[in-house]
Each structure stands twice: as structure tokens, then as C-alpha cells.
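Minutes, project check-in

Agenda point 3 was the complex the collaborators sent over. CS summarized: two entities, 550 residues total, and the question is how they sit relative to each other. Sequences were read into the notes so everyone works from the same version.
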Amino acid sequence: MKRSDSMDNHLLSVKNLCVSFPSPKGAVDAVRHVSFAMGREKIGIVGESGSGKSVTGRAVLRLLPPYARVTAGHIIYQGRDLQSLSEKEMRGIRGRGISMVMQDPKYSLNPVRTVGRQIREAYEINHTVSRHEARRQALEMLEAVRIRNPEQVYHLYPHEVSGGMGQRIMIAMMLVPKPGLLIADEPTSALDVTVQLQVLAILDDLVSQRGMGLIFISHDLELVSSFCDRIIIMYGGRIMEVVAADRLHESSHPYTRGLLNCLPKIDGDRKPLPTLQRDDAWLEQPENQEEVI
Amino acid sequence: MLRVDRLNVIFGLGAAKNHAVKDVSFTAARGDSFGLVGESGSGKSTVLNCISGLLANWDGTIEVDGSPVFHKRHMSFYRKVQMVFQDPYGSLHPRHTIDQTLKEPIAIHRLGDANRRVDRVLREVGLGPRFRFRYPHQLSGGQRQRVAVARALILEPEIILLDEPTSALDVSIQAEVLNLLQEIRAERNLTYVLVSHDLAVVSHMCDRIAVMNRGETVEIIDRRQLQSGSLKERYTRQLLTASKGYDRAAIDQFQDF
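CS then shared the predicted structure for the full assembly.
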């Protein structure tokens, strides 16, 4: 396959992404030489806190604070290198091209506007339509995320909805501009297990109906392995390995094995849990990792 | 060792009335580890707060070591019952060194011999003397939770109440803290009451488990039932299914309880 072909086929291709934050004690490398490419699939990024998984997601959308130093070989979304775009062009990408669902609806929704107005606004920014049409789209979207009484919920303020409903509203807001790629950063970590799965099911259905790509950032290895197609495992800002979700348990990487083994299991014995032995050699991989497919 | 009988907690009045805990009863023998599991709002932490004395507006019976406790506790109660909280970032005083934090309960209870006690308890939780004069912000989350465990242990209690002790930690750190808790329980023959939303953690730590929903005990099961899946209540079965990961077909069967 020719190089240009393979790049066109990818929805998103990131090469050699590095992010560092300056600090009084010297720069902190949050993401080091991360490369990956994805099509219209569900891809999971898993790692512990500080592994750089969220920073990777934000760097793609250029949402990091101005003092962050971001460098990359390329960040190509649907044939355009996002690095070469102006801030104005980038605003066209955010929402309509790539959108992002954050962890906590409590902090991510505007507390003084009704949820309906916020969803409508997300649609109006990206489409020139009448207010009536935007409202219709917002209501339709609320129905798509299985809110039973959209008319009623449309007029509620964020503090009047539960955590699970708030998260569904966030998803509605992010999906109403019809993006091609959704980045979900721990979208369900604050929710109870059953609600969490219900929200994921909605996300799953919408993503497959529309043929979107999904980057699902999470710390929950087991959940990601049952939900996504492929998993990127990160540690210390680097990609440790990329595995197909159904082959996760066959993985031989010591870090992945360590993460899997230290989880308590319902049908496990009572023996002390094996703890994770970290190895500094994991952080000393060759500078230019080959692109992982 | 610990007996809770028909515990009721009601918050608020009139239209805002919230019956947070309804007739919850359980017992834990000396050396037992009892689990309370449920989703948010199920009242599991409220039960713990009543036992520890943080809440006073409860009705029912709580007995520790055969004698009932009342809303006002005697000092000696706190030497028997101690608590470890969920958030290792919020439960330690940010302007006190670990040494100060650990010496405060010793001073309150006039135990004396503070230096030796602090040194010993720090070794016991696997931190060692070099952490003694640090402030909480100089420690990682897992180390802070070890300090929280040390603070509970320093009065040599018989019952430790654990409110989601590992849910703010990474899985690799969670494993270390759970191992530590198991070791200490075996060594000191402690009684644990562990609150968690994570069935796997509860099943790893506890012999008997109360499943709670909307303030009520759905059922009390032992861990073998959880492993074999022989559960009576549909709510518990749904919780078990949900904890096994994403399964599109199973999710459509979920009900609200």
C-alpha cells in the first residue's frame, strides 16, 4: 500500500506526538513519542493516572493550555493536518469534526443555562438553521440518548438532573453537530456500574449507526476490553502496547500483565494480590516508535 | 463484636424527607470482615457514619462488644472503633506533618509513649521513619492512604470502618492497600466493616456482604454465593452482571430498582 493511501484510509493518524509542561524543576514530559492511527472503530486508551492518556486526547483537539509544548510529526484528521490550521479553522474542527465528552457533567455543563439551550447552541454554531429547526434537532438528540421525556428535560438546568442523565445530556450535546470522531475522556467513571453500562450502550449504538470513530479514554482495563475493538496501553507518557481487545488476556507485556493481575476478582482466591513491579526500561523505548496499526 | 439492629436514618422534614437507611440489621463477629455494597445513594456510607458516631440522628440499636452505644459516645468508644475515609487527599490535615497527625489521637487519649507508637505504626503500614516528618502533599495517594490507615491503627482499635478505602486509587496501588489491610486484620484479629461499590473488592476482602439499595438491605450473602452466582434477588444478579464488563445484550435487560 502506498503511504498516501494508508493515510487517507485513516480517520485520525497521530505521529510522534510529544507534550511537555514547563515546571520550576524542569520540563515534565507528559506524552512521549506517541503514534497511532485509527479508522472508524472504537479504540480505548488505558493507563493509570499520570500516564498521559487524557493529555493525548486533548492535544489532538488542541485544548491544552498555551504553556504546554506540543510537537508532533503530524496529526492528520480526514486528510488535514490539524497542526497547520489556524485557531479559527480549528473551531470548525471542534464539534463538527472531532468532539469530546468530559468526565463530569457537573463541571462541564453551564450551570446557568437550560440543558436544551446548550444542546441547541452546539447545533447552531455548526449549522445555519432556524431556531425552531435547532430545537427540533436538540429534542431528537435527547430522545436518541434515551431520555424518556425530552420536552420536559429540555427546560431543566444542570443541577436538576441526575449524574447519569447529565452524562447523557453531555453525549447528546457532543453528538448533535454530527462529528466524525468522538473522544470520550472517562465519560462514565463518575457513574454507578449499571448506569455506566447503559450510557456506554447508547454511545455504542450511536457510534455504530453513524459510522463514527471513538477514542475511549479510561483507567478501567476490563471495561475497555469488553467495550472497544483495540486498546492502547499507556504508561509514563508512552504507548506500552496496542492490542486487539479480545486478545488482551493473551498479552505478554509485563505492564499489561501486571495491571490485569493486580485487580481483585470475584472468583479469585483470598491470596494477597500480586503488586505491580515497575520497570524503568519501559520508558526507554526507541525514540521513533513505528506507527502502530 | 458489632451488632446493628433495625437502624433507621431520616434526613430532612416534610416534602424533603429522605429515608436514607431503612431497618438495616447485621452482625459481625470478632475477626470478621463484613461488606456493605451498593450504588450511590443506597445508604451504605450513612450506616458507617452512624456506627462511627459522625451522625447522631439515627434510631435503632448499635452494640459494640455486647454493650449498646448511644448518640453521645464516651471517649473509650473511639479507642475501640476507628474509621478510614475514601479520599486520601481530603482526610489528612494539609498543614500537619504525618508525625503531628499521628500524635494527635495519642494526646487526646493520653496514651503517652508517642514517639515509639508513631514509629511502630508507620513501620506496620510499610512507610518507615523517613516519611514521618513529611507533609501530606509530599506523599502519593497510596502513601497517604497508608497514613490514614496508620492514624486509625494508632489507638489499637478492635473495629475498623473502611469507607471506600481504595476507590480514589489506581488499581496497582489499590492492590497494595488491600494487601496491607488483609495483613493487618490477620495480625491483630481486627473486625472490618468495608463499604464499597466494587463487588470484586468486597468479595476479595469480605466473608459476608450486605447488598443495599435505596436504604434497604436487599439481601445478605456470603462470597461463595457471589462466586457461584446463586443469588436470590434480581437486583444483586443485575449488579453482578454489570460488574463483569460491557455486554450489549445484557444491558437491554437492565431494570430500575
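Noted in discussion: Chain B touches chain A at residues 39-40, 170-172, 174-176, 178-179, 182-183, 197-201, 203-205, 226-227, 238-240, 242-243, 245-248, 251-252, 254 (CB under 8 Å).
Follow-up: revisit at the next meeting once the mutant set is ready.
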